[in-house]
Amino acid sequence: MKILTTLLCIVCFVCLTQAQHSHQSDHALTYPDIEGYVTLKTDLHIHTVFSDGNVWPTIRVQEALRENLDAISLTEHLEYQPHLEDIPHPDRNRSYDIALAEAAEHDLLIVHGSEITRSAPMGHNNAVFISDANPLLTEKAETAFAEAKKQNAFVFWNHPAWHRQNPKGDPILSDFQKERIKKGELHGIEVINSVDYSEEALALALEQNLTIMGTSDIHGLIDWDYTEKGNDRPITLVFSKEKNLAALQKALFQGNTVAVYNSLLVGKPEFLLPLIEASIKVNKAVYLEDTQVIEVELENTSSSDLLFENETEFNFYNSSPVFEVKAQSTYKLLIKTMVVKEDFDLKLKALGAYSAPKQHPVVTWKITVEK
Prior knowledge:
The chain starts with a helix and ends with a strand. The protein is elongated and about 75 Å long. The protein has 2 domains: 237 residues, Metal-dependent hydrolases (TIM Barrel, Alpha-Beta Barrel); 89 residues, Immunoglobulin-like, CATH 2.60.40. It is α/β, with parallel strands linked by helices and 371 residues long.
């Protein structure tokens, strides 16, 4: 009996230890690498109690680990500290220091960042890859941006279509932003912030050659604000040569990104097309016996549901021209080629993806038919 009890204790201890060290949830995010790049899942706009968020920095690290993110940045407001009476912190790097210590034993990159907060037309902007947040706390916004540039920060414009700053929900590129871009002090723009997608911000990104960004801007719990509502947090996929801070920073400056929120993907064609192509695996392509109908099994390896419209020269047998391949699922497509073919191009318009306002990319897979 003593031996049985001992064995049970050992099993319980092992299970508890595994549970304590099992960080990924069933809601973990996954997206494929593309040729020449590692795909890094990032959220570079996050708040904690060290500004106007509701959680301790360690929680942000734990949430990111559960969701299989590769990099986060705790971008606390420099000018807005509503919890100051309860959490006095004259050092504006404190949130970053706590997160960095929490992530020390994990494969999660912590990007040092802060938010420069002003009224319109300056608006809210995140400076990430800074070395010290304290010098950014200045009276003049222009001085803060100049200091961020001095620290070689990557700076992006937050929620430019936010209705509380622009009642029409239309981002206005003011003289302030134009001057920052001209001086090399503004490099990116959020086209997705929280649950909002701004076509106007995407148009500005393409017009001004700004890096396309997507962020959660989370203040509460990810579980409460996103997961329990059936959503994933918005993220920026960054296509980097390696998984390290220097390579990530370089990729952001180069504009190697796609913004993602659930089934919405927004980015430049040179990254959006290979991402979607890599997300869909063709598991098989074979003619049904004694027919000219090919059965093609498609597997979506990403965390986004992908909605397609037929752009091939052939019609479908078992589906409307518009169909969806659910995340982490397969879909069998029957295609009528009319004559037996050894190979063909499967061309699909990705209806949930945007390379410009109201413009969907067409992705092509080279299909070889099995004998």
